[in-house]
Write a structure and sequence with these properties.
mainly beta, 3-stranded antiparallel β-sheet, 73 residues, Antimicrobial Protein, Tachycitin, Chain A, 5 strands
């Protein structure tokens, strides 16, 4: 499902804020939320999911929503 009121160019990809494994991908002029496979993170410069080297400042997408971050992440 696309995000209302937001348009983009097909093929565009961008990480969702500070979340390691979530990104949006544009199809038919609309962004759609995607997730990387377990153990991978979205690499903003490469525009693809990959293993990142070194420590990361972001949190997994599963931490979004109403879950308690201390309990789940």
């Amino acid at each position: 499902m696309g995000i209302l009121g937001f348009t983009c160019r097909d093929g565009e990809k961008s990480r969702i804020e500070n979340y390691c494994d979530a990104y949006w991908e544009c199809r038919d002029g609309r962004p759609h939320i995607r997730r990387c496979d377990p153990g991978l993170q979205f690499h903003q410069r490469l525009k693809q999911c990959s293993h990142l080297k070194g420590p990361s400042q972001c949190v997994p997408y599963e931490c979004l929503g109403e879950r308690n971050l201390a309990e789940y992440c």
